[in-house]
Amino acid sequence: MRVTKAQASANRAHVVETASALFRERGYDGVGVADLMAAAGFTHGGFYKQFQSKADLMAEAAACGFEQAAQRAAVQSPADFIAHYLSREHRDHRGAGCTMAALGADASRQTDAVRAAFAQGIEGLLADIQNAKGDAASPDSGQGSRAETLETMARLVGALVLSRACPDDSPLADEILDACRGKAFGMREKSGAKAV
Question: What is the number of domains present in the chain?
Answer without folding.
Answer: 1
